[in-house]
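To illustrate the input format used throughout this study, we show a single complete record. The first block contains the structure-token representation of the backbone; no residue identities are included at this stage. The design step must infer an amino acid for every position from geometry alone.
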């Protein structure tokens, strides 16, 4: 249960809804309330949108019921809203919408109103990842790292995490740094590992990634002052870069 909310509300890409500025503003108000722990307000903002067929609002109502946040915990109602959301996301995904493709991957990976399938999750995340969706790239990299739904392949995990990391996505930066520490799928390189850890820590000082600073500082004990200085310089020079489609294949 906790994993479902963590993935979809802590890690999702927040985009405006297609129903117009007023609805988009109402959805975003609900997001702000949710992040502040005001679940009753989030429910009030999302409920009318969900009734009008807004897939994001329906997805998030499922999360509220799954977690028992602002409403009594009820898995049946959670699945009801997720099944409705899935029906709205799927046509968008089939038309090539990257966010919808990413969302369907989550639905399959987390068994949200559909049977669990890492294979189907990998297929949808792969499509979204090739469109440059950093969240999907990160999730797809995790499947390759763990050999879930796809063959275990550290090099492919590094490929997808690198693309997301270059866009500034902190979870991918952390994961990629770990590969450089271990020398999995990439040559062992403490300078690059420190750089990615440093960027992730700087971008998320209060988030679930806050412990990445500890990883960075522990790694520093294995490095020379010159290596640390080089890694810090690279981090300072880093600028997130949107990835072109032809670089992702």
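Output of the design step:
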């Amino acid at each position: 249960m906790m994993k479902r909310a963590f993935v979809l509300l802590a890690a999702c890409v927040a985009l405006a809804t297609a129903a117009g500025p007023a609805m988009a503003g109402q959805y975003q108000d609900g997001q702000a309330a949710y992040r502040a722990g005001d679940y009753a307000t989030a429910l009030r903002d999302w409920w009318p949108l969900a009734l009008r067929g807004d897939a994001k609002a329906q997805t998030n109502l499922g999360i509220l019921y799954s977690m028992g946040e602002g409403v009594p915990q009820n898995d049946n109602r959670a699945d009801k809203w997720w099944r409705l959301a899935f029906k709205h996301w799927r046509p968008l995904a089939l038309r090539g919408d990257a966010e919808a493709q990413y969302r369907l991957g989550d639905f399959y990976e987390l068994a949200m109103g559909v049977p669990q399938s890492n294979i189907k999750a990998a297929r949808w995340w792969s499509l979204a990842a090739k469109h440059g969706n950093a969240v999907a790239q990160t999730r797809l990299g995790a499947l390759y790292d763990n050999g879930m739904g796809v063959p275990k392949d550290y090099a492919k995990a590094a490929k997808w995490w690198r693309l997301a990391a270059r866009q500034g996505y902190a979870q991918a930066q952390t994961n990629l740094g770990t590969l450089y520490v271990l020398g999995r799928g990439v040559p062992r390189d403490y300078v690059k590992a420190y750089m990615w850890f440093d960027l992730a820590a700087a971008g998320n000082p209060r988030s679930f990634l806050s412990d990445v600073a500890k990883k960075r500082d522990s790694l520093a004990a294995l490095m020379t002052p010159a290596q640390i200085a080089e890694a810090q310089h690279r981090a300072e020079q880093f600028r997130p870069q949107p990835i072109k489609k032809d670089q992702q294949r």
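Structural context for interpreting the output: The mean pLDDT is 88. The domain at 1-116 is CATH 1.25.40.10 (Serine Threonine Protein Phosphatase 5, Tetratricopeptide repeat).
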